[in-house]
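Hi team, as promised in this morning's meeting, here are the two structures we talked about. I've kept the exact order from the run log so nobody has to guess. The first one is mostly here for context; it's the second one we should focus on when we meet again. Sequence first, then the predicted structure tokens.
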Amino acid sequence: MHIKVKVSTDQNKEKIEKISEDRFECFVKEKPENNMANKRLIELLAQYFGITENKVRIVKGHHSPSKIFSIEI
């Protein structure tokens, strides 16, 4: 399954909001430096879907706030 995620970094609270069936908005505390925000986002998505982190990967948008993720359920 592929999902589209809009990421806001350097926030006070971390949360995931489901916008539609395949679109999410995520807020993470980490800054977009040294891949820290992407790593945290993968952790949060894995936790949200109840799967391990190795089943979540970025397909497109490594350096962009709009990303496409592959989720293996």
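And here is the second protein, the one for discussion:
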Amino acid sequence: MRCMMSRTLASLGLCSCLWLTSCATPAQVAEYPNQQRMVGKPKSAILACAGLPRKVTQDGSATLLRYYREAPILEESQPVGKGSVSTIRHGCWATVVLTDDQVVDVRYRFVPPTFDTSNDCEEIFEPCLQ
């Protein structure tokens, strides 16, 4: 009886997780202050304040600088009673689009896509505002 009940509860829990995952929609990526302030800056300024990107690629006449920032470990756990529980591991990809060595666009992609991690991307460019 006990074994059958635990199997039923486990199945119910798995079905609930699958149902919630299937209903999840991507978080909306909008325009953010630091993201918008990068437009118009030269490539040298971005490299000086944001550092070296994880990846540099060419897309026709455009150069793409890809940055990634992951949330700090402490941000990924929530206190519960006398302990803590892990939450979703999250981060953000920022792609800086350059034409003629000048920023023309900055795009954010959240990881996971259902979780707004814009604060992680915004922090990549925080040193650029000082």
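Starting points for discussion:
DSSP finds four helices and six strands in the chain.
The longest strand covers residues 102-111.
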